[in-house]
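#struct-pred
JK: can someone run the complex with 4'-deoxy-4'-aminopyridoxal-5'-phosphate? inputs below
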Amino acid sequence: MDKSYVFYNGEIVEEEKVSVSIRSRVVNYGLGVFEGIRAYWSDEDQELYGFKLIEHYKRFLQSAKVVNLKIDYTAEELADFTIELLRKNGYKQTTYIRPIAYKDTKTVGVSIEGHEDDVVAIYLQPMGKYMEQEEFRVKVSSWVRIADNMLPPRTKATAGYLNSALASLEAKRAGYDEAVLLNRNGYVCEGPGENIFIYKKGKLITPPASDDILEGITRDVVMQLAREELGIECVEKSIARTELYNADEVFFSGTAMEVAPVVEVDGIKVADGKSGEVCMKLKELFADITHGRNEKYKDSLRPVYGK
Ligand code: PMP
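RT: done, structure tokens with the ligand placed:
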């Protein structure tokens, strides 16, 4: 296998030169924040496009601010490093980009004070589809979604993903494809790594930021596409569990998952149990814009090889 390179505290280095100690606070307490970004390979253009890099890095910086991690770079600089890293690795395939910042302090103790051992790194993972399935059968989790005054989902904190992982594990053990988490108030929140939408009576509905969701970048794009390309009204409002059962369509959105139909919730078919029409149109529109096939959205893409 060819060498892979990562970004580590300002430099691009061979991945094998980087390691994390078992003493590190990020290993022991999950004291870190991360992002998930995609770069899309276009066969037509023979180009790799970083998608919404600035939006992701702005969210990364905001996450870091909340948990007192110091990142000495702007969103623009982090985007530039990412392009450089993608070039250095030379990938000509759709790739997942994982920026991560963490406390690498090696003394025992749970503090997030001080910045001496803060690390900022980026690694890459070629990734086509995130999961095997084309359509998802989901289970409402018995695990409750963490809240903003517990472990804020908005921060995309490493530790918070144990909540996601427990929900996914429970769903998969019960024979479902994925979980849906409710928040403390019993309202629909999101999937373990994706936002959720329902389509009902001609309107697209998704939970508001105040319902303890991660404000997804794909979620924003989906709402923009629905409004501007399909002329569909979008509403951000709390969704009750039974609204999932009675929706005309349910679907997920997320960087890894992209746009994916949910056809069954807790063993109950959503409408006729087939992928929804609106979801599939949005999925296609999303694929077009991420692969550079729609001029109107070209400014959300940053070419890596820059022809
Ligand atoms: N919710 C959670 C919990 C997530 O981890 C993600 C993935 N980042 C999303 C929603 C979707 O966000 P985005 O569209 O920005 O990837």
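RT: quick notes.
The longest strand covers residues 95-103.
The radius of gyration is 20 Å.
JK: thanks, will look after standup
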